[in-house]
Predict the 3D structure of the following.
Amino acid sequence: MISRVAEHCYWLARYLERAENTARVLEVNQTLLLDFHVPMEQQWQPLLIISGIHDYEKPTTSEAVQEFMTWDADNPFSIRSSLWWARENARIIREVISAEMWERMNYYHLWLQSAACRNLYDGNRGEFYAQIRRVNQLMNGIADATMAHGEAWEFFRLGRGLERACQTARILDVKYHILLPALADVGTPVDNAHWVAILMSCSGYEPFHKKPRPAIEPASAVVEFLMFDDQFPRSVHHCLSRCKDALAAVAPPGGPPTEADRQLADLLAWMDAREIPDLVRAGLHESLTFVVDGVHRLGDAVTKTYFAVELQAAAGE
């Protein structure tokens, strides 16, 4: 499999996952603010930080941030940009993905540009975000059912796992440190609502409550679930474990571990050696930042190992 095809499969999955994640946190944040009073400076700024946007210069009002994170073509993390780039990656590898995947991806690309789509956004914001979530869910289902589960599929799975792991860690970090700055708020209804919002942002509310767990404080239980639960498909550890499976599937038979393999093994070993009390003692923010940085390093290693092979060969000549 040539590196160009692998790279487009990988980024197709990442952009689809990014669009769903953006829609999910926008919807959950809007719902949370309907029920609880949150200071203006803490209402929408966290959503920008989740996406790695630290230079937003306009007022962080509800409409301004939602418009920026939904429609701004110059914002690489907006829903519009993410789905545009997902479609571009799908277009380039039409011969690799299934016809059903391409038809549905192209359908949503055209829908997003239509007046009906904009009217839905203006008239029923919750349904609009739900529809964006369904784009990724449907594309993943079609991919699973219609793509050959060979190398192209494994790179698709690798991209999805890396994007999910990074976004889950970012949501935990930003929500915990910005939406709840006051120690006196711990254990209050507002505190509980914030943890519910975190679970909902990661689609983990129902799985969290359906799973038996030891009697520990809610905050620690949520962090443990989203970081370490191997049965929840959006937990950091679950995502990284699936990435390990994908890398193993595309590795050359009998070859030495790649830099991507080593980066992933180090990150998983770091997580396996720790429990929630260890993360809290070390500082939850520092621990989550380490995970996010580790996923970024892993992404860079994947690019250098599999997608920039020609450039590396040229440099060594």
Observations:
- The chain has one domain: 3-316.
- The chain is about 75% helix and 0% strand.
- Residues 75 and 241 are 31 Å apart (CA to CA).
